[in-house]
Amino acid sequence: MRMTDRTIELDCGKLTPTFTQRLAAGLAPLTSLFRGFRNRMDINTLHDLSDAQLRDIGLSRADLTSAFLASTFFEDPSEHLTRSARNRWRLSLFRSYEE
Q: Which residue, among 76, 83, 86, 81, has the nearest Cα to 33 in the 3D structure?
């Protein structure tokens, strides 16, 4: 008597996305654009702060200007400001360590 192995083929292909998943994927670029626009508006309000207040959050007026110049209209300038603040913070830690 002979035994044979049988394998079951499973359809493990990609599942078709649901309507809400397709809707969310379709709206993602639009929400990203609105988020970038809102962040630009918020960065404009940072110009109202004094130099001391900007220094408290780790920024300078030059950082605000360079954030707008370095990013296009469709890019989010807040990422540039975040990097500037983090770099300034690291430099201040390094300087305090040397002293």
A: 76
pLDDT for position 77: 84
Residue ranges, the chain, pLDDT below 50: 1
Task: Please state the pTM of the whole predicted model.
Answer: 0.58
Joined tokens for residue 50: 């004094």
Instruction: Please name the amino acid found at residue 21.
Output: Q
Instruction: Tell me the C-alpha distance between 79 and 49, whole Å.
Output: 19
Q: What tokens does 70 get?
A: 């370095």
Total H helices, total E strands in the chain: 4, 0
CA 51 to chain centre: 26
CB-hemisphere CA count at 13 Å for 27? Answer: 8
